[in-house]
Amino acid sequence: MYKILGKRQLAPQIYLMDIYAPRVAKSAKPGQFVIVKIDEKGERIPLTICDYDVEKETVTIVFQTLGKSTIEMADYQVGDYFSDFAGPLGEASEFIHEELPVLKQQRMVFVAGGVGTAPVYPQVKWLQQQGVQVDVIIGARNQEMVILENEMKALGATVYVTTDDGSYSRKGLVTDVLKELIDSGKAYDHVIAIGPMIMMKFVAKLTKEYGLKTTVSLNPIMVDGTGMCGACRITVGGQIKFACVDGPEFDGHLIDFDEAMRRQAMYKTEEGQSLLAVEK
Ligand code: NAD
Ligand code: FES
């Protein structure tokens, strides 16, 4: 059983929880994810790790209440337990394997969209702690949906915020900011984009025009998280891959985003039906 040690609402429908999970905390790396089951009968919910603390033996997760299971999850309070917390799963971010002097030469920019800002946080934290200075572009629908801006700044990263409606900072999409930064002379070597699939598709389209290396983190529908069920199948460079074991990070220029988005939409009806059942 995995005890909830902390809970905080970051934005409407977005929650952060610190979970006591010593084994996961000890081996977690930036870029990896966990699969949470709230109780024995619960659905398996894949969530990217937002932070981990080896000393406190905790793992931080951030989730949005989008369906039946995440709405139930948000009802859990400090002191409650989740029945299962499997992980860390997936491959860690590629950059952690690079030599530090090489990494320090690289100019990296993270593009974080909405809830996708949460999985960007541990990557930025890891890099800043190694002395690698990075830029972060955070995009959100409006001011109240901007998350982890101050936490990202506290790490020392240079943060640009944009909102779709212009209610905070500047108005526009993350791709507008990225284009402006590149055109203004920021000579980035590596773009890492995490957020809604449509955002990652358009970031990859833009960076392809500039010939910029681009990594994206996919979160397709997952069931077992072990490469057995095929639910998270995606096509990368014409080859079939499974996001749970081969990813979740991939070369953004090789992903068949349209197929990935079609597969994500396939389950909408079932999710909708579960949601209606819980709301009755
Ligand atoms: P959102 O729809 O509010 O979008 C966030 C930002 O993405 C926007 O503010 C905008 O700047 C940018 N964006 C959106 N559409 C764009 C487009 N067409 N072109 C350029 N930029 C665009 O995001 P949300 O509702 O918080 O996101 C939820 C989604 O994020 C869910 O689908 C969830 O699955 C996904 N998510 C992904 C990960 C991951 O690991 N990849 C993690 C958490 C959440
Ligand atoms: Fe089953 Fe990836 S979740 S193969």
Q: Can you tell me about this structure?
A:
The chain is α/β, with parallel strands linked by helices and 280 residues long. The protein has 2 domains: 2-89, Beta Barrel (Elongation Factor Tu (Ef-tu), domain 3), CATH 2.40.30.10; 94-217, Rossmann fold (3-Layer(aba) Sandwich), CATH 3.40.50. The protein has 10 helices and 16 strands. It has helices at residues 22-27, 68-74, 100-105, 117-129, 149-154, 174-183, 197-210, 243-246, 257-266, 268-279, and strands spanning 2-11, 14-20, 33-37, 45-53, 58-64, 81-82, 84-89, 108-113, 134-140, 158-163, 170-171, 190-194, 213-217, 233-236, 239-242, 249-251. Helix 7 (197-210) packs antiparallel against helix 9 (257-266). The two termini are 29 Å apart. The relative contact order is 0.13. The mean pLDDT is 92. FE2/S2 (inorganic) cluster is lined by residues 222-225, 227-232, 242, 244.
